[in-house]
Amino acid sequence: MTAKEINRPNIVVICADQMRGDTMGCAGHPVVDTPNLDRLAACGTLFDNAYTPCPVCVPARATLTTGNYPHKCGVAKVNRGGITDDQLKLAGYFSRHGYVSYAAGKLHYLPYSSPETPRVLHGFDHAALAESGRVLSLFDPMGEKRGIEDYHDYLHDTGWGGYARAHGVGNNDIHPAPSVLPSEHYVDSWVCSKALDYLDLHMSNDKNKPFFAFISFPKPHAPYDPPRPYDTLYDPREVPAPFEQRDTLPRTPTKFREGIIHGWNLVSPETHRVTRAYYYGMISFQDKQVGRILDFLEKNGLAENTIVIYLADHGEMLGDFGFFAKSCFYRGSVNIPMIIKAPGMAAGDRSDALIGLQDVLPTLASMAGLPLDRDVDGMDFSPLLKGESFNERDFYVSYFGDDPRQSYMIADKEYKYIYSQVGGTEEFYDLANDPEECSNIAGIAKYADAMAEKRRQLIDWMIHNDDTSILHDGSLLKTQKEGLENCKFEVNSLGLRWY
Fold first, then answer.
1. Which of 68, 204, 273, 315 sits in a 20 to 30 Å window from 60, CA-based?
2. Helix, strand, or coil here: 428?
3. In CATH, what number is assigned to the domain containing residue 38?
4. Does pTM top 0.85 for this prediction?
5. Which of 63, 40, 494 shows the shortest CA–CA distance to 286?
6. Strand pairing category for 100-105 and 355-356
7. Of 488, 456, 334, 306, the residue nearest 398 (C-alpha)
């Protein structure tokens, strides 16, 4: 190994699941206490306009892994599909360039492998998995086997096997309930501990090589179940209320339909507030784990030569406009946290550049002094971190869904346009004057030209990126509304799972 390779920066990517970009103290949240994320931002750059290319787990993580939009790397615009072999892959790329790569937590790479076959790791040299029971549900629904999900094995080893969901709340259920597990055995704590174990091992066995560590917390994804005492950290009577719609125009039809099926319209405003308080509690608990990581790097003399990036796959609506979860393009769902600290780069900066998950691979490669051997959709924004001139993108596109329920967003710093195939529903938001997106101005005449321009830019993007399934003769397809009046609450839609 050359001296240049030895001096290459270590890389730590900390990934949250379903973390809103606005729920951090450094982002200006009035309630949430995140001293360690604030500490990271004070040493690096906080991005206010960071987006996910697809606001749902699998495609978002595929883009993070490959630097390409989901439809280009083999993954559907929903939670299915697998990354194709021809793609660059984040961990494998750095491993080929002399890094030792480690993963701890949730990868959510599909298809999941059966116990008799190698795990799908896309290049990680070492991995300890916590997949929220998804692999168990396929191959061991009674939870009787070992070696399928490492966190499941850990809980059994500590006498807490089966208790991760013993509060009776499902993986996609919005009802709040504190975790039965002691905080030291809660999933985000385990993920952090496994990551630090790996870094300890690296310091003992491979300290002359740089490391790439992907620390992927399964929280604050539902269930909203912070460990005690984090369930009492925030008074539900004092948390901000969800944003409310100030117009009477239709919002994303598929999301409205989802709300009826999941029974969101049956949940009381007080439950909404408790849910928010518990979500914030999970964030503060995760922030504590981020502090453990930062402390480890400092204690072991690694902080000065380690790139640290905190991000998420997508956000969480958290009751805004009556919606929960993700898969739509309102701020809570499509905007993500993004903080980067790197050796020799500016500290305490804040940027409004339009960036996304596809930019992580090319930016990290550039910061490590490594070339990409092929083009990707993402851009290298490392010049911005150095205070150099930077040609940022003019707009950002995100999408979700299959035909006939596709939906798209195009946004710049001034306006956001959303198109839903169902009903041909159009939404338009003045981000400069209505950053919470409470008023759909699609029907206001003075905005007609601006909205038409955004629609044109979106169609041009679709054609340029070979993503035309929603186009016919150059126009956006419209399908009939789906009989929303006939939608009914379905208990099994809550994602109730024993694990």
1. 273
2. strand
3. 3.40.720.10
4. yes
5. 40
6. unpaired
7. 334
